[in-house]
Design goal:
The complex is a heterodimer of chains A (482) and B (255). Chain A has 482 residues and is of the alpha/beta class. Chain A has 2 domains: 273 residues, Aldehyde Dehydrogenase, Chain A, domain 1, CATH 3.40.605; 180 residues, Aldehyde Dehydrogenase, Chain A, domain 2 (3-Layer(aba) Sandwich). Helix content of chain A is 38%, strand content 19%. Chain A has 15 helices and 18 strands. Chain A has a 7-stranded mixed sheet, sandwiched between helices. In chain A, strands 8-7-6-9-10 form a 5-stranded parallel sheet, with helices on both faces. The relative contact order of chain A is 0.12. Chain B has 255 residues and is α/β, with parallel strands linked by helices. Chain B has a single domain, classed as Rossmann fold, CATH 3.40.50. Helices cover 44% and strands 15% of the residues of chain B. A 7-stranded parallel sheet of chain B has the order 3-2-1-4-5-6-7, with helices on both faces. In chain B, helix 5 links the parallel strand 5 and strand 6. The longest helix of chain B has 29 residues. Chain B starts with 6 loop residues before the first strand and ends in a 7-residue tail after the last strand. The chains are: A alpha/beta (482), B alpha/beta (255). At the A-B interface, helix 11 of A face helix 6 of B.
């Protein structure tokens, strides 16, 4: 099977492609990634810049939302051509099980329907019309939010469809986009761009989805110089290197690796609620095999419930085993398998010094739960369904364990009573956590969330103010002044 | 190899649970007759995989609701293999398992029930009648009728389907009471919601979650899960069991 990745405005030129082969369980898939020459990149840039100012800037925000909503509705329809293609091909390129892709896509796409997009807009701007025209401000005067002409986006990872966050965000601020797909999941962004254009042909030149080899200095320097905003996902090292190529006049928005964890209060571990709590925790571990930045590495479980932290770990182990039948773990690469084995071996060795410790799950199994007593430290696990359970006396006990990771902290999934929730939320906020969610919802941020504590939309725009003085002063020049 | 030299007929085994059962018997060395209604290609694929797994197999197309077709099929088996040791009545009349669109109690007419009763009890009756003479001669035989755990706990009341399957349990017990005298055993296997199969592929996640939340072993039934209990009832390991129903649903039903 063959599939062309990416999406390009019509630049009237022949393109070169690089072919990457993905081995699926049943068949192989050859994906052709569009490779642009310097001149072609320039042409694309020019087209996108022009279309962004001629087309996107002249559309109303409500028209743009309608187009996105129409595409999302199509993608939620399981008989749709692209939806079926996604369900068929994404398991091959990402290795995730078909059931994982099917349910994951629906859960993810749902938050981009019209009523959610409206929430996004209100969250960041209050009055979304500020993207269309100058709007009156409470401080007096008027303001308008103006999006960039060109946003360059560098996506990473193999969680399917993830580029939608930034692609949709930039569209909603009326910015043209040039996106670079990761070679681990190069397809979805291109399909989405094509679907947008099918729904609204005017958008044909507003987007480009391409590929180049990461770290191609000359290309990146050139591209970044002409972009208004560069938005990049990845490890800190590659982000540092990208940053070094972004000129001071271009805004750089980096989204680096993060670490997330769960907190389970003893209030959620009575004889009736414990199993539900454990189920929610397991759900957070199995969704995309912890490949998202919001996936947990550790569950801190409070002592004193009818189910002890050690029993929580054992219940979690069986829940993961049951989930393996329903949503099997994806097939791991050699390197991933080796690193997982190494992590597990280290954990097993440390049982010699920490007699409290238990390593659950078979050596070659699809999951590992480590109960490590009061070891405490929030150390990253090997992902791919490896999780640590640690016991704490009070919920606040987590603070010293997470402090060393302040700049990496992101999501906390929590099962606790309301009074506990708000008390611990303050403590976590001060420690650097930016998102607190229900246990079981860690992998599904809600519409309008603050990714890494930042604003998805308003970080992309600049505000233009008409100060009150200008308005007042203008009055004196009106022809109709008495 | 528990089933070396044993001849096993599995009705409706071109796909789903039936196909999985055919492979399960083949893995243990049995000669499997893969009965199918329409999908010859799928049946041939099951035959190929049975042979690869170390058993022997061939496919026979026959509509089990048609008495003469069933008789012809059984004659062919006896002619070819000389005996029938095990029959798994797995075929059933197609039914839309859709909790949202199912008919409510007051929307059903008698034809709805009759259709399912014909698809379940009548077809099993045809197959049993056809194999009983041969099994009597052998003084042995194991008949396994596939039902559903809904017969004990209709978590979603699919009235006509479940009524027919419940009738199969009663039918099987009566048969067991009489055929025990000839050394023929009759039992039922009642799986929970089996996923994935063609009939359950579109079952909503919410329904699955509700069932899982009430299942001690915390997941749905897979086609492979059904193999063990069926093979057990087909084998000598259960030689003193008849008239029983085994529930294969992770503990959702306890009886």
């Amino acid at each position: 099977m063959k599939e062309k990745a990416g999406y390009l405005p019509n630049i009237g030129e022949e393109l070169a492609y690089k072919t990457v082969t993905f081995a699926g369980k049943q068949e192989n898939l050859e994906v052709e990634l569009p490779l642009l020459t310097q001149e072609q990149t320039n042409l694309v840039l020019e087209n996108v810049r022009k279309a962004s100012s001629d087309v996107l800037k002249s559309m109303t925000i409500s028209e743009i939302v309608q187009v996105i909503d129409a595409v999302i509705e199509q993608l939620l329809d399981r008989t749709n051509y692209y939806r079926q293609k996604a369900e068929r091909l994404l398991p091959i390129i990402t290795g995730y099980d078909e059931e994982v892709i099917r349910t994951g896509l629906t859960t993810f796409l749902k938050i981009f329907r019209k009523h959610h997009l409206q929430r996004f807009l209100v969250e960041d701007f209050g009055n979304p019309l500020i993207l269309d025209d100058f709007q009156p401000r409470t401080k007096r005067g008027f303001s308008k939010a103006v999006g960039p002409d060109v946003t360059v986006q560098i996506w990473s990872g193999n969680v399917p469809a993830l580029p939608l966050w930034s692609l949709i965000s930039s569209l909603m601020v009326k910015s043209g986009s040039i996106g670079k797909v990761p070679s681990a999941e190069p397809l979805f962004a291109g399909w989405f761009a094509q679907m947008l254009v099918d729904v609204e042909p005017k958008l044909a030149d507003c987007l480009a989805v391409v590929w180049w080899k990461g770290g191609d200095e000359e290309r990146e320097r050139h591209l970044f110089k002409q972009a208004d905003v560069v938005l990049a996902y990845g490890g800190n090292e590659s982000l540092e290197s990208i940053k070094s190529r972004v000129p001071i006049t271009t805004r750089f928005l980096p989204f680096g690796h993060k670490i997330s964890f769960g907190i389970v209060s003893s209030m959620s571990l009575d004889s009736r609620k414990a199993i539900k709590t454990v189920h929610q925790a397991a759900n957070d571990v199995i969704r995309y095999d912890q490949q998202g930045c919001y996936s947990p590495h550790v569950f801190y479980v409070q002592k004193g419930g009818n189910v002890s932290p050690r029993e929580f770990a054992q219940l979690l182990a069986h829940e993961l085993e049951a989930f393996e039948k329903r949503y099997p773990r994806r097939s791991l690469s050699m390197e991933e398998g080796a690193s997982l084995a190494e992590w597990r071996q280290k954990e097993e060795l440390s049982m010699l010094t920490n007699h409290n410790k238990e390593v659950l799950g078979e050596t070659n199994g699809a999951w590992t739960v480590v109960f490590s007593g009061n070891e405490g430290e929030l150390a990253p696990t090997s992902l791919n369904r490896t999780i640590k359970v640690m016991e704490i006396n009070d919920l606040e006990d987590v603070v010293p364990f997470i402090e060393p990771y302040r700049s990496y902290l992101q999501t906390v999934g929590i099962a606790a009573a309301p009074s506990e929730l708000f008390a611990i939320a303050n403590v976590l906020a001060n420690a650097g956590v930016t998102r607190i969610t229900a246990l079981g919802s860690m992998n599904s941020p809600e519409a309008g969330w603050h990714h890494d504590g930042r604003f998805n939309l308003s970080d992309l725009v600049h505000m233009v103010d008409i100060e009150h003085s200008a308005e007042d002063y203008a009055e004196s020049f009106a022809s109709y002044t008495d | 190899m528990n089933f070396k030299n044993k001849v096993v007929l599995v009705t409706g085994s071109s796909r789903g649970i039936g196909a999985s059962l055919a492979r399960g018997f083949a893995r243990e060395g049995a000669t499997v007759v893969v009965n199918y209604l329409q999908n010859k290609r799928a049946a041939e694929e099951v035959v190929t995989s049975c042979i690869e797994l170390g058993g022997d197999a061939w496919a026979i197309g026959a509509d089990v609701t048609d008495e003469s077709a069933v008789n012809e099929m059984v004659e062919e088996i006896l002619l070819e293999a000389g005996k029938i040791d095990v029959v798994v009545n797995n075929a059933f009349k197609s039914f839309m398992f859709n909790p949202e669109q199912r008919k409510l109690a007051w929307q059903l007419n008698w034809d709805d029930y009759q259709g399912q009763i014909d698809g379940a009890v009548r077809s099993i009756h045809h197959v049993c009648q056809a194999v009983i003479p041969a099994m009597k001669k052998q003084s042995s035989g194991s008949i396994i009728n596939m039902v559903s755990n809904l017969v004990e706990r209709p978590i979603v009341p699919y009235h006509e389907y479940t009524t027919a399957k419940t009738a199969v349990v009663g039918y099987s017990r009566n048969l067991a009471a009489e055929l025990g005298l000839f050394g023929i055993r009759v039992n039922c296997v009642a799986p929970g919601l089996v996923y994935p199969t063609d009939t359950t592929r579109d079952t909503k996640e919410e329904v699955k979650d509700i069932i899982i939340s009430q299942t001690p072993l915390r997941r749905l039934t897979t086609p492979r899960d059904v193999e063990g209990p069926v093979l057990f009832l087909a084998s000598e390991w259960s030689e003193f069991m008849t008239g029983q129903t085994l529930y294969v649903d992770g503990g959702f039903v306890m009886k």
